[in-house]
Amino acid sequence: MSEREDKTHFVDHITGHRRMRRNRKADWTRRMVRETRLTVDDLIWPVFVIPGTNIEEPIASLPGVSRMSVDRLAEAAKKAADLGIPAIATFPNIEMEKRDGTGSEILNPDNLLNQATAAVKKAAPDIGVITDVALDPFTSHGHDGILRDGEIVNDETVEQIVEAAILQAKAGSDIIAPSEMMDGRIGALRHGLDAAGFQNVGIMSYATKFSSGYYGPYREAISTSGLLKGDKASYYIDTANATEALRDAALDVEEGADMLMVKPGLPYLDICWRMKEAFSLPVFAYQVSGEYAMIRMASDNGAIDGERVMMETLLSFKRAGCDGILTYFAIEAAEKLAKA
């Protein structure tokens, strides 16, 4: 048997013959060993609805995103369903004259949000509709709850959002996603929905909604940025507090939440991971308006490859343990995934 020339390199001695690049050497090997995958099933599309007919109104601080009238939204929902997007999340921008201190318009069975839900379920019955019961689109002060004597009152707000949730369920909402961060809201909503016969309507809790600076474009989209008096720090979670966030989520789990959400998304990937590790429930991240706008505007100005960063960021949520992502990129990402 002839002796072979020893071609061992000193790098082999350094690495102990372990070379990480072997699995990276070609496209087929990279695909074969890929750990995390993003699919259209991971996408939820947040949309904004406005009064009127045949209206699509661009939002300056959210390039590529528009407010849509109910008829346009119904058509957009069909497109989303055709792309395989599982669900949309609807947010209304109602007339200013219908907003008051208590957000009473949310208790109108025929309000804009409920009209949108009914229209979407008729146009695209196979797509899920997720609705919020926070009062900020309905209040004259821009807060998520009822404001009395300078305080956002917890218990009265909870009573009102339970009634609102029942109306939303009657309109066809599949999942109630309460974002107002009042204490006890999840248990109250579960009891209220069950008592009204809506046992099959799910609750996706905004379990950890942080008092963040990333919400600005959203507030423009629903026309609350000029209304807001003070801030929301008395009911949103301090951005520095991870333990408090997990405790808040644990209470929502105990009260009957079916799914949990982290909002915003990218600055809180550590919370996504910890929530997925701590609770045996689906976890979602909301890639909020400020996150979207930064990527879009940087891309529009040539600073980054926007499509690549979009997909990389969405994948990061999956890698952090999320079961899905609410993102304004949903249509664009779904179209790209369909071509892959």
TrEMBL record:
It is an enzyme of class 4 (lyase). One of its GO terms (cellular component) is cytosol. Keywords: Heme biosynthesis, Lyase, Porphyrin biosynthesis. SUPFAM superfamilies: Aldolase. Pathway: Porphyrin-containing compound metabolism; protoporphyrin-IX biosynthesis; coproporphyrinogen-III from 5-aminolevulinate: step 1/4. The keyword Lyase applies. Pfam families: ALAD. It catalyses: 2 5-aminolevulinate = porphobilinogen + 2 H2O + H(+). GO terms for molecular function: porphobilinogen synthase activity; zinc ion binding. Its EC number is 4.2.1.24. It comes from the Bacteria. The active site is at 209 (schiff-base intermediate with substrate), 263 (schiff-base intermediate with substrate). PROSITE patterns: D_ALA_DEHYDRATASE. SMART domains: ALAD. One of its GO terms (biological process) is protoporphyrinogen IX biosynthetic process. Belongs to the ALAD family. PANTHER family: DELTA-AMINOLEVULINIC ACID DEHYDRATASE. Homooctamer. NCBIfam families: PRK09283.1 (NF006762). This is Delta-aminolevulinic acid dehydratase.
